[in-house]
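FORM 7B: Structural annotation worksheet

SECTION A. Query
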Amino acid sequence: MIENESNKISRLALLRAGAAGIGGITLLSSLVGSGCASERLVGAEGPPKTDPKLVKYREVSRFKPGFHWLRGVCTDSRSIWVAGDMAIREFSAEGQEKTSHSLTGTAKAVACTPRGALFAATDDQVVPLTSGAPWSSLGPRARVVSIVADNNHVFVADAGNRVVTSFDHGGRRISEFGQKTADYPGLTVPSAFIGMALHPSGDLMVSNIGQHRVERHGRDGRLVEAVGEAGMGMDAFCGCCNPTHVSILPNGDIVTSEKGLPRVKVLSPDGTLKCVVAGPEQFHSETLGLATAVMGEKILILDPWEGAVRVFAPV
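SECTION B. Predicted structure
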């Protein structure tokens, strides 16, 4: 999609306002819900140089969905779905727009299933776009930040209530986890990000950002395992609260993205760093909200600063 000049100017002005001063930080926080919107780990000397030996992907294409603010992306075997502004738009793998769905609230996330069901989320509500009416509000404190779905269930990550809830496709609540227990530290959410992805086994992968780790949960919410630790090194998760997003490659490898020091990398299932998809030098230092999705071997990165979906392929 070709982005017209007025949209480009207003979008960049909005993003740059968020990077300038307290007023800008307040504006950006209201848009992305991040208590750490001012976090910046790139110094005046610029981002740290990524070891080129670690980089195993290259950008092969990009397209602009035409939104002022990009918030979510998902893929199926045929299409790329993008959530932004107050709509969900469908694109071909080449970036040509196919369909569009308008929402009555701000589009925060989108999920699609292998059988073609499509779900969108606003702050407090899930909206089935292929069948049925919008579900009931999740409550006054709800702040939905991500959703994923399979052919039977929809998983909703609510940063306001710090929980992940599973529903059937009709909106009936099935289970919930996220609260602190004797055996689990709980979902720690210093900024409004909880990344989710479905593992090939059917388990749910969740980024517990305040704990600097990626967790694998069973369908009943039980914690199966967790990987990750805090640190500035490429093999750790930086800043106050990362990784913000997570995706799963067909072989079970974990794709993670971070803010503060914006970067995207691939981990093995045990958490060992396998490679870098894109290092900090490939993003503006103020970039946050790098949602990811997987389409075959390709990794899609939603870049809000550029207003683009960037497509990376293995080298």
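SECTION C. Observations
The radius of gyration is 18 Å. The chain has two helices and 23 strands.

SECTION D. Sign-off
Analyst initials: ____
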